[in-house]
Amino acid sequence: MSVNRVTTRTAPEESDGVRTPLRGRDAETAFIEERLDALGRGEGGIVRVEGPAGIGRSRILAEATASARRRGTRVFEGAADPDAQFVPLGPLLEGVLSGEEPLSGARRLRDLAATPGQRFWLLQELGDRLREAARNGPLLVVLDDLQWCDDLTLLTFHTLAAGLSTHPILWLVAVRSGSVPSGVRTTLDRIRQAGAHGLLLGALEDRAIERITEDVLGAPPDPDVLRLAHRSEGVPQLLVELLGSLREEAVTIENGTARLSAGPPAPRELPSVVRRLDQLSDEARELVQTAAAVGGTVTVALLAELLGRSSAALITAVRESLDADLLAESGDRLAFRHDLIREAVEAGLPLPLRQALRRQAAGLPPGRTPADATEAGGASPEDASEADRQRTEAAELAGTAPGTAAERSLRALELTAADAPERPRVVAETIPLLWQTGRAAQARELGATALAAGDLGPEDEALIRLALARLAVPFDFSEAVRQARAGAALPGISLTARGRLLAMLAVGLSMSGEHAAAEQVAAQAWDTAAAAGDRTAEATLTTVRSAVSFHRMDLAESFRQAERSAALADALGVSTSLWVPEALWHALLSNTTGRTAEALAVVEEGIRITGEQGRTAATRMWLMTRTRILLETGRLAEARADAEAASPAADEPGPGNLADVTLRYVMLRVALHTGDRRTAEAYAAEARRMRSDDAPVVRHFGTWMLALMADYEGRPDRAMAELDAVMTSPAADRPAYAGLIDPADAPVLVRMALRAGRHERAVQAVAMAEKRAALNPGLPFLAATAAHARGLLDNDLAPLVRAVRLYEDCPRVLARASALEDAGRKLATTRRPEAVPYFETALALYGRAGAERDIARVRRRLRAAGVRRSPSTTGLCAAWPELTAAELRVVRLVARGLTNQQAAEHLSLSPHTVSSHLRRAFTKLDITSRADLTRLAQQRDDGE
After folding, report:
1. How many helices (H) and strands (E) does the chain have?
2. C-beta of residue 289 within 8 angstroms of C-beta of residue 249
């Protein structure tokens, strides 16, 4: 016997947790209203809502439930779910025993359900309880997805419905049309004989499709968008999911009309199809995926051959696929119920697997493409011509629609024979497009396969290694260095290829923290790029020059070079840049030197532009940069939300070095400021891994993180032991932008060293801070950090007060609060009343940041000074007082542009939990759309 549980679903017409108006169901809702009117007059009955998957059965039930509640009718809701196994009768029993007004006697009913042999008494008791409830007013009992109900639920339902037919109880049930288990079919026959009313839901009409399209996209669609919407063939769930994917990546609103950004979008996975696939057995899932890869209609015999089984062995899998409404019978063949379903299944398969299955289906030996079967042994003229066309379109779209460009490039690759001389160039063109659109693992696999195959000419190998070096930059600094170095060493390659490879090598060395080597390679690369007249390499090398100047503490020159590199990259177009984007370095530089508002403006613009263009990789790099800025401006909740939004996926290539020096560093610092020990320990474990990385900068970050953690634990001696190797290394090898010597961290290091009794290390840190400030007199932030560090070292109030004054116009909230606290601590030893204003200002700044651990420490100082303050509300943000911490984390991610599914993955929550948080937040904030939320977030952030 099958068993089930109660579940809550997102209705098909909901998009990312926000429900759109019900369209195209006027007759059905009018009938439901008539039955509810009759129920109000004391007339019960049964209504059966039937239709195929995704047609909107659950939405009709939800509308009926809402209407009943508005009338004051008591409602019980239950639903069956094929995913989990619980006690029999679960859907019905939990439906009447949970919710706002459960039936009375719940404990006894549960006991009877759990006791073997008590079925008769359970039915009697449940019937009595429903009769008793119906005497006090009409009841609506809703049971969704009847096709998944266990036998006992089916028996109880039709028995109670028949036995209570004279009572004011309306039974509203929904069932998927088509093939259902025999027990379900018997139940449907019985309630039909008992006079049940039937509602058969069909496809939406054209007008309803157009109105839903406008609801989801926020503007009337143009003909191209509407043509795509009609591909749903009037199935609401497919329509809304298709529109949701278009809204995120492929549609813009121009002059009040929704238009496609750049041609028809590539097929993509749809949530409902993914859910149905997940509900299948492994055998049935493989069968459906294989059918999708083959395309069109397919025979069972062909599927059996491709899967290496007999046709008889597929009987159960075929039946399961038909029952799931994924496949349908088409004469003696199988076909997908809907072409969008086939495309969604296929989109979830890796490209190599799709190609292999198509080769097998075409009767070709493994390792050969369909083009290999032509008499000439290469691509047919038609395929070659089409491949050229696809490559041309990919190149034209790369700058504005990289997602579409990537699909065009992949298509060109499929049409190009394995031994075609142009194939390596197509591979090299495809890798950066895949990386830019968030498919780094697929890009790396494509490049690695091409290199492993051998037989590449030097120029072809150089171009593929250049693409792989670009790909590796965010994930593995050392791998970027290895690929660029290997490519640059190839003999006989063009000046352009060699110049770009040397430029990438210089970038990789610079990001790794090997500054002396980066400077040497950059000089060589500059000569090569100049000889080739390559402005793209020049833009990248100008960024390296800026980083070298920064390392030498010549910040004026560093800014000049950074501005030049950003201007060059902007003039060239982002698609040709070797280090996307150069402006990102400018933002990092601005933030590190205290120009935080400027840095944040650059980052916000970068996120906006790359988001509009669908450049997933660049958007994540911008988000990573923003985490550092938000941390250092004291916006801890936002910094954490950004870090979670940009967290690396499990299948990304390499250890994620850029994430190491941004996200993981930020998450540890946020955890330390907020007193979140568990999170801090988790990222300290990451720091131990970072400490053994090949890249010096990652090792330095890991070491500094471990020192901070040791100091947090009250072990300053251990913290200094962690730092000894870094502080004794040659200055040329120390990355100037590492957390250890970030200007705002100089006082932290001094405080740490003094607590450990390591006076010489404190002196070293102060000397570095004062040198940086002296070399850059136009940056008050650097002077503030130097004065702060000096005041701590000398235990001198004057430089501490000077630091407080210098910090006043600086947006580094936590650094300013720290200086205020230290000045107050010094004053409190002899002039306690004068210390109080310093402590109170520091407390306000820490409170604004949500730095609970720092708040607690300053409160202790205030109490010692004779001042009492009531505790703060932990977890709440001043800018969002209506929301809980959990709701705020979801709101932050959604306001950044993440879908509910993406937010759920980043927060390790279920999509349903994310939707629940979002709905509650919408209610509290009195808004109705994600666009409203984005606008509100911008307003409140500006207000901060």
Report:
1. 46, 11
2. no
